[in-house]
Write a structure and sequence with these properties.
239 residues; single chain; 10 helices; DNA polymerase, domain 1; globular; two-stranded antiparallel ribbon; alpha/beta
Length: 239
Amino acid sequence: MIRAVFFDAGATLLHPDPPVEEVYAREFATDGVRANSEDFSRALTRAWEEVHSEGAADRYGGVRGEADFWREFLNRIRRQLDGGVVSKESFGRLAAHFREPSAWALYPDVLPALEALERAGLTLAVVSNWDSYLPTLLDRLGLASRFAAIAVSAIEETGKPDPEIFLRACARVSVRPAEVVHVGDSIREDYEGARGAGLSALLLDRSDRYADVVERIRSLDELPGRIKETIPPVSSSAT
């Protein structure tokens, strides 16, 4: 029986508004970079690919390492564009921008889905690879109170797809992994990571890229109905 639903945060519950590429392009231009939006999109994609390839479960380096992570991440992008480095001033402005709730937007399907799950008596939690500001951001967006736990990789110093962060969230809301469905947009971190920890999982495929994945939804509007269906738990020693 499913008793809890866990959610990824970025690209699942919320997204940058305006898009990251637009914000970076505007700020980098003041720092002397001349590049178009396609250049920024490619550089941003490559920078994240480099981060993922390094394989650290906590990509942000823990709470004390966050500033260094983000500075190096921006420098990865800058190096690909013109070989330079991001100035102290630009870094400060970008860091401040993404800590403002006005820089983020909830997807329109989020609140209706959460409300439907709450009415069904399900416990809700967040399990996200994010820096330590996420709980504050969710609070300022009016979402934090809806979740019984918010497990964030930088705070936990472990992250998806490693099982540990999922298991800690289960313990905090007093459910077994087999009683949880995790929902997120990443095949590796959310879908495979949750299943590897013994949870069930639904892949949120807003762009319809993974038609071969049976356990997927195109919108959170589908989620309450899918929870009512039988989702077989994944056999794992974690259960």
